[in-house]
Specification:
The chain is 33% helix and 12% strand. It is built from twelve helices and ten strands. The strands form two sheets. The protein has a seven-stranded parallel β-sheet with strand order 1-10-9-6-2-3-5. The protein has a three-stranded antiparallel β-sheet with strand order 4-8-7. Helix 7 links the parallel strand 9 (199-203) and strand 10. Helix 1 (9-27) crosses helix 2. The radius of gyration is 22 Å and the shape is globular. The two termini are 35 Å apart.
Length: 372
């Protein structure tokens, strides 16, 4: 499993959308060989969708040969209702891209036979060859889609009764009235998500820090359904700094160091988009470097542009590691590489790192609102 840590939710959204864009383009989908994408609802992926729309409008990606499957839908809520997940997906994504209508798949929460509807959904996923990439978010209690704590880790698409905490959390979308929130939903199962060839989860905010810790540092547990991705052969979590608050410091440093070693020493040209090392062109096994995980994105971008080193050579407190400082002086000159925990491997400029498009066409969500 890969853990990618970015500075804030905006950087997480841009990284995630850019990754999806590159995966689609790398796949080179055709009508006979489509890219099958699983998509979530909720507040977390909204800005991801805005970036995907922006990429499409700039001609950087096409969804013409993409097939989508949404994660869930409320039972008994009309599809035309503004808070139905059908309305949500059209409002934030489908109405703004070139996705073929026949390639859009969503659960019908108003079907006469809900069990048959769930089986139809599973059959359709198999019919198109399975899901290539499943994008997902999680709840504070670690649930994926509507797979609440206690859900079977082998579950498939089915009807679920929503936990009271979930009803309370979703009441904000219904004017704060819990009585208006549907109590049942159709949802893909944990097993449905696991069956995808790749899973990418977005986790942001301090309120989800415990869930991330359960996902990363503890064992697989059906009370924290997100933890099942530990068993997936190709899973990635993209989170912000706030979401790491419950992780051990050594865990955060470990995952940051993995990305830094790959980027700075092994070389981007040797690493596939999904993180596997395919070749070692220009790799120097004797190269040494120094990690400076607390340096800001702006400092790194400045150094890369000017070739000058930062005045703050030692990002740690000298009094905290006196022995290490002495040892470094005795070792003599050591090649230093400044690495930023928030610099985006996939971005090509400082403006992209901060989540803005090169031409400034997509304003930050916090100030712009929905651009559509």
């Amino acid at each position: 499993m890969r853990l990618i840590i970015r500075e804030d939710p905006k950087a997480v959204a841009y990284y995630t959308a850019n990754y999806v864009r590159q995966r689609i383009n790398e796949f080179k989908p055709t009508r006979k060989r489509p890219f099958v994408l699983g998509l979530p609802t909720g507040s977390t992926p909204v800005e991801v969708y805005w970036h995907l729309v922006d990429f499409f409008k700039r001609g950087e990606v096409s969804f013409r040969n993409v097939i989508t499957f949404s994660m869930d839908e409320y039972v008994g809520l009309p599809r035309s209702h503004p808070e139905s997940y059908c309305s949500f997906m059209y409002r934030h994504l489908y109405d703004h891209i070139d996705l073929r209508p026949e390639n859009i798949h969503m659960l019908d929460g108003n079907a006469d036979d809900l069990a048959a509807e769930c089986q139809r959904y599973e059959d359709k996923i198999k019919e198109v060859g399975g899901i290539e990439l499943f994008l997902g978010g999680i709840g504070p209690d670690g649930h994926i889609a509507f797979n609440e704590p206690g859900s079977s880790l082998e579950s498939v698409t089915r009807v679920k009764t929503l936990a009271y905490e979930t009803v309370l959390a979703n009441a904000r979308f219904f004017g704060g009235d819990v009585n208006k929130v549907p109590k049942l939903a159709l949802t893909v199962g944990v097993g449905t998500v696991r069956a995808a060839r790749e899973v990418l989860l977005i986790i942001t905010g301090a309120h989800k820090a415990v869930a991330l810790a359960k996902c990363i540092e503890e064992g697989v547990n059906h009370m924290w359904t997100v933890s099942v991705i530990q068993l997936h052969p190709s899973a990635m979590v993209v989170c912000d700094e706030d979401a790491t608050l419950e992780l051990h410091v050594k865990t955060v440093r470990y995952f940051k160091s993995i990305e830094q070693v790959q980027e700075q020493l092994i070389g981007r040209q040797n690493i596939s988009l999904k993180g596997s090392i395919s070749r070692l062109s220009g790799y120097d096994p004797g190269q040494t470097y120094r990690v400076a995980v607390q340096q800001s994105t702006g400092d790194v971008a400045s150094e890369l542009d000017t070739g000058e080193e930062s005045d703050d050579d030692n990002v740690y407190d000298d009094d905290e590691y006196p022995e290490e400082e002495e040892e470094e002086e005795e070792e003599g000159d050591v090649q230093k590489m400044a690495v930023s925990s928030s610099a985006d491997m996939l971005a090509s400029s400082p403006s992209e790192i901060n989540g803005a498009s090169l031409n400034g066409s997509l304003a930050p969500a916090a100030t712009a609102g929905n651009p559509f």
